[in-house]
Amino acid sequence: MESSDRDMYRQFQDWCLRTYGDSGKTKTVTRKKYDRIVQLLNGSESSSTDNAKFKFWVKSKGFQLGNSDEVNGAGGRGKQVLYVPVKTTDGVGVDEKLSLRRVAVVEDFFDIIYSMHVETGPNGEQIRKHAGQKRTYKAISETYAFLPREAVTRFLMSCSECQKRMHLNPDGADHKDNGKPPTLVTSMIDYNMPITMAYMKHMKLQLLNSQQDEVKIQIFKVCSQLLLWARY
């Protein structure tokens, strides 16, 4: 991992743990919660009032244990992994079906998003081709569950390679600018929203309602960046 990637990892990991950690009531699964679900499915979770609620939640979600596709040192299947059924469509009709997805762990969000965002060559080497938001999130949602779109958008907004390509720094400011980072602008972005034309109109309204010329300029730059990501 390059130096810029290590810095990005530390910042993103810190944000993930603050946002989706055990202390927050979010629809995500931390390593601690993941291990607890596995213990429950294996029958090793003790009984208590708190556990009764947790058992009900696990049962309602339909969590299942299965073997990973990885091969261990003995030539057998890898360790057990956690799956959950999610509703999917074929993209043509309206009929829904249930498909199993791997449960994404909060502490692994960076590695999961990175592996889907950065294209690799035939021998696993990185060719530094970065996918856009739509392709990245689609690839993740076809394999994993419990990984919010918000985290994907946040990742892309802090990706140094994408910032270079868009000629913007992670705070949304042009590299040619020498002013302070526009933290107000980044705080106005709703990372849960898909980057669509509807969201662009929403951002445009914020721009028009802003009384600060500097904020207007920075919002315009961020909108331009998000539009480029939305195209691929």
Notes on the structure:
- By secondary structure, this protein is an alpha+beta fold.
- A hairpin with a 5-residue loop joins β4 (118-120) and β5 (126-130).
- It is built from ten helices and six strands.
- The strands form two sheets. The protein has a four-stranded mixed sheet, covered by helices on one side. Strands 4-5 form a two-stranded antiparallel ribbon.
- The two termini are 25 Å apart.
- It has two domains: 3-68 and 80-88 and 96-167, no CATH class; 192-231.
- The protein has helices at residues 3-20, 31-41, 49-61, 109-117, 133-141, 149-158, 160-166, 183-188, 197-209, 213-230, and strands at 64-67, 80-89, 96-103, 118-120, 126-130, 144-145.
- It is 49% helix and 14% strand.
- Mean pLDDT is 75; it is low at 168-185.
Q: What can be said about this structure in brief?
A:
It comes from Platysternon megacephalum (big-headed turtle). This protein is an alpha+beta fold.
Per-chain topology:
Elements lengths: L2 H18 L10 H11 L7 H13 L2 E4 L12 E10 L6 E8 L5 H9 E3 L5 E5 L2 H9 L2 E2 L3 H10 L1 H7 L16 H6 L8 H13 L3 H18 L2
Parallel strand pairs: 3-6
Antiparallel strand pairs: 1-2, 2-3, 4-5
Helix/strand order, N-terminal first: HHHEEEHEEHEHHHHH
Reading side by side through the largest sheet, how are the strands ordered? 1-2-3-6
Please count the helical segments. Answer: 10
- First and last CA, distance: 25 Å
Low confidence ranges: 168-185
- What fraction strand? 5-15%
Strand elements, count:
6
The mean pLDDT is: 75
Shape field: globular
Structural classification: alpha+beta
Give the fraction of residues assigned to helices.
40-55%
Largest sheet: 4 strands, mixed
Number of domains: 2
What is the CA-based Rg, rounded?
20 Å
